[in-house]
Design brief:
- By secondary structure, the chain is of the alpha/beta class.
- It is built from 17 helices and 16 strands.
- The chain has helices spanning 10-14, 24-37, 51-63, 77-87, 103-110, 114-131, 147-159, 176-189, 209-218, 240-249, 266-277, 298-306, 334-343, 350-366, 372-383, 428-440, 485-507, and strands at residues 2-3, 5-8, 41-45, 68-74, 93-100, 135-140, 164-169, 197-202, 223-226, 257-258, 391-400, 403-412, 418-424, 444-453, 462-470, 476-482.
- The strands form 4 sheets. It has an 8-stranded parallel beta barrel with strand order 2-3-4-5-6-7-8-9, surrounded by 7 helices. Strands 11-12-13 form a 3-stranded antiparallel β-sheet. Strands 14-15-16 form a 3-stranded antiparallel β-sheet.
- The structure holds zinc ion (ZN).
- Residues 13, 170, 201, 203, 233, 237 line the site of zinc ion.
């Protein structure tokens, strides 16, 4: 049997796509979920690009224990050293070096000869190996590279100590048969190939990323690079959940393959990413779209009721799709609550558990049924609050079709003072934001605003994700949760405001 390693790059390739940027604490929450999902390697970022990326990789490296943590860098000593500085606290660090090998990249981007690039690749891997035992080398745009030159580079970097060699289809250009041939060619032409893992990294520009990754697995690749929900540059990367379920559903074809992914955690991981970024999958998205398991036509419904396998090739439960099972309610005790949170993978100290239990009781009073997603939201709303500077004491809205929208807000300020103010606005949310502007003395402009329901049903908790520019600075994103979407909006706004204030204090 061959084990396929899953290398998740949601936090690096995924995060660099427009609209998908994440704050450090959000990246940590997602990394912890990726670890629960069972991925083998988490690519946490590109530390040399910015201090923010460096900090995120360093903090993720400190909390993740089971998965390897990779950091990407280009083939030069300074970037490799910076990457190592961010990674060195990891239980299992991996330096990931990339340099292009295709003629078009060499001639127009790097302006270097084939020999120069070969030397740079070998020097980079040799240096990285003095710092870190686990070194991955990527030949960017491998699919459009001369196959013999590609093989020459791969052989040289394996000799220099690379333990994984990645063959990316950087531009999403190949088809399964061609990619399979290339992987087989590399296996036959590179004499030391058995000393390294072969990895593939496919992009979805022509909709073939998953198919190409699977073809490579069949040809002998034993690592796939992918992202949750298939997010990533341009049309995105290969979707992790689709590769995993293909391997699981068609065990008859992939009968020599094993992978460690816990499929029941797939849906939760997908939802967490959507709730962090505010971007939902399209409803018909394979595996994790909201229609992925719904049967609309009468004939299909009849068939499924008689035997689910008439139209279902996998069960919703196998990917953790929420049934309408009630988990907890207002009569649930502390023990049931802490047990469920622990089962969901949240490790919290006793004080934090007590605080959350109090919040859970309030929630359970308003909402008869408390689902797993509600419990996740409780935990995430807590980690969403950096350090409380402004605290909401009271908010009241009034609005109607012949009424000027008005909000009254009582806030506790960082100095401990309690201030009441009221304002009118275009709507009740706008009115509340204006009242907070007056109390905090911080001007704001709303850049993005989105409401999601955490679960189904009329009494569902609302999640508001917003991005606000304070005093004309770049946007700060935050989330707020409540069974009342107006209150969730105010909580999200105050979370963003607190982040802005915290950032100001840090820069001083
Ligand atoms: Zn990529």
């Amino acid at each position: 049997m061959r084990q396929i390693k899953f290398f998740d790059t949601t936090l690096r390739d995924g995060e660099q796509a427009p609209g998908f940027s994440m704050k450090t604490d959000e990246k940590i929450a997602l990394a912890l979920q990726l670890e629960r999902l069972g991925v083998d390697i988490i690519e946490a970022g590109f530390p040399a690009t910015s201090p923010g990326d460096f900090e995120a990789v360093e903090r993720i490296a400190a909390v993740i224990k089971n998965a390897s943590i990779a950091g990407l860098c280009r083939a030069n000593k300074a970037e490799i050293q910076t990457t190592w500085n961010a990674l060195k606290g990891a239980a299992k660090p991996r330096i990931h070096i990339v340099i292009a090998t295709s003629d078009i990249h060499l001639e127009t981007k790097l302006k270097k000869s084939k020999d120069e690039v070969l030397r740079m690749a070998v020097d980079a891997v040799t240096f990285a190996k003095t710092l870190c035992d686990d070194v991955e080398f990527s030949a960017e745009d491998a699919i459009r590279s001369n196959p013999d030159y590609l093989c020459q580079v791969i052989e040289a970097v394996i000799d220099a100590g690379a333990s994984t060699v990645n063959v990316p289809d950087t531009v999403g250009y190949t088809i399964p048969a061609e990619f399979e041939t290339l992987i087989l060619y590399i296996r036959s032409k590179v004499p030391n190939i058995e000393r390294a893992n072969i990895s593939v990294h496919c992009h979805n520009d022509l909709g073939m990323a998953v198919a190409n990754s699977l073809a490579a697995i069949r040809a002998g690749a034993n690592q796939v690079e992918c992202t949750v929900n298939g997010i990533g540059e341009r049309a995105g990367n290969a979707a992790l959940e689709e590769i995993v379920m293909m391997l699981n559903v068609r065990k008859d074809i992939f009968n020599d393959i094993i992978c460690k992914i816990k499929t029941e955690e797939i849906y939760r991981t997908s939802k967490l990413l959507s709730s962090i970024t505010g971007i939902e999958c399209q409803p018909n998205k394979a595996i994790v779209g909201k229609n992925a398991f719904s049967h609309e036509s009468g004939i299909h419904q009849d068939g499924v009721l008689k035997n689910p396998f008439t139209y279902e090739i996998m069960t919703p439960a196998s990917v953790g799709f929420p049934g309408n099972k009630i988990v907890l309610g207002k009569h649930s005790g502390r023990n049931a609550f802490t047990t469920r949170l622990t089962d969901l993978g949240h490790t919290l100290d006793t004080a934090a558990m007590e605080e959350l239990f109090a919040e859970f009781k309030i929630l359970a009073d308003k909402k008869k049924e408390v689902h797993d997603e509600d419990l996740d939201a409780l935990v995430y709303s807590r980690s969403n609050v950096d350090k409380v500077h402004f605290e909401l004491e009271y908010v009241c809205f009034s609005s109607g079709n012949k009424h000027v929208p008005t909000a009254t807000v009582v806030l506790k300020t960082p100095s401990g003072e309690v201030i009441t103010d009221a304002s009118t606005g275009d709507g009740p949310v706008d009115a509340a934001f204006r009242a907070i502007e007056r109390i905090s003395n911080v001007n704001s402009r709303l850049l993005k605003y989105k409401i999601n329901a955490v679960t189904a049903g009329k009494d569902a908790q609302g999640e508001v994700a917003l991005t606000v520019s304070f005093n004309e600075t770049d946007g700060i994103s935050a989330r707020g949760y409540s069974t009342d979407v107006l209150v969730a909006s105010v909580k999200a706004y105050i979370n963003a405001l607190n982040r802005y204030v915290a950032r100001g204090m840090k820069s001083k």
